[in-house]
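for the writeup, i need someone to sanity check this before i put it in the appendix. the sequnce is what the collaborator sent (i think, or maybe the updated version? ugh). structure was predicted straight from it, no edits. if anything looks off just tell me and ill rerun, i have time this weekend
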Amino acid sequence: MIVLGFYTTLLCYTGSGPIWPEYATNPVCKENWWRYLLYINNFELSVKSCMLWCWHLAAEMQVYVLSPIFLLSLLRWQRFGYCLASITIFLSGLSCFLITTEYNLIYCSFVQLDLYIGDLESFLDRIWMYIDSLYYKPYTRISPYLIGVLLGYHFYGKNFKDIRNRW
């Protein structure tokens, strides 16, 4: 949050040059700073983003807030917890598939670059559509997190006192 405060208020005073005031003062930061405090900035368009690299912090925090649901269900009702996590992983993959087919998104951006050589602006629009509708969203990013939670829970229940190095 210190970086956000510095980026929105003090950055314009730290440099000089012919284009520095236009570059350093981003009006989007002054309008949308509160989204970064609440960790919901990954639900806005990338065009309206102040610090584009913070989408991962928001997605990670959103999944972290949901993780007690899965952990408590695993501790309390193990079978139900595994089913809940498996269904969530499946629904996350299904949402990726449905969003990709609905918007006809680019599955690998540079593989299809030769199709868009004549119209580079259309290619870049499709990449930003992919990033905004699929890449930044927590419901498409929860699968690897839940796989890690399930593996952590599985190893938590194992007894590793008899493990010896074999090298």
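Residues 19 and 25 are 11 Å apart (CA to CA). Residues 78-103 form the longest helix (26 residues).
thx in advance!!
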